[in-house]
Amino acid sequence: MTEKENMLSGRLYDPSDSELLALRQKAHALSMQFNATLETQDGEREAILSQLLGERGENVYLQGPVQFDYGCFTSFGANSYANFNFTCLDCAPVRIGANVFMGPNVSLLTPVHPLCWQERNIYRKPDGTPTDREYARPITIEDNCWIAGNVTVCGGVTIGEGSVIGAGSVVTRSIPAGVFAAGNPCRVIRPITDDDRLL
Question: Which residue in 69, 74, 126, 169 could disulfide with 89, CB within 3.0 to 4.6 Å?
Fold first, then answer.
C-alpha cells in the first residue's frame, strides 16, 4: 500500500512521503491564495475552491481565512457555510453535509498521534529524513447541523443530522441526530423539539 492509502484507511503512515508532501504543499498554497482573495472576487475564490476541495455542492461559502491540510479529502454538501478561521486537517475523509453552518474558529481535526512517546516521537528514516508516525480517523457532519464558534471536532466523530453543537465544545465522541450538545468533552444536553421553534 502507498502511504496515502495507509493514511486514508486509518493505518499508521509516514507524513514525509513525497506524494503526501506534494498534496499538502498544494493545499497550503491554495489556502493562502484563497485567504488573500477579496470576497468581491467571487470568480477567483470559486476557481481556487474548485482546485482545493473534493466534492462541493452548490452555494458553499467559506468566509475565510481557511486552512486545509489536503482539501481534496473534504466534501461539502449544498448550502453549507464556514465563518472566519475554519481549519480542516483532512488526513482522513471529512464529510460535511448540506445546510451545515459553522461559526468562527471551528477546527475539524482527523489526525491522531500514538499515546506512547516511543511510537510518537520524530525518528530518521534510512535516508536521514526526519519523520514521525501518525494515523487518522474520519469526521462526518450530517445535514442540517449547526456547529457554533470555537468548536473542535476530533477524528472518529459523526455528528448526527440536525444537531447543534454549543460554542467552545470539544467533540471527542459521536453525537446522535436531533440534539443540542455542548461542553468539554461535548455531551448531549437535550433533544431539540418543536418547543424550540421560533416561527
Answer: 69
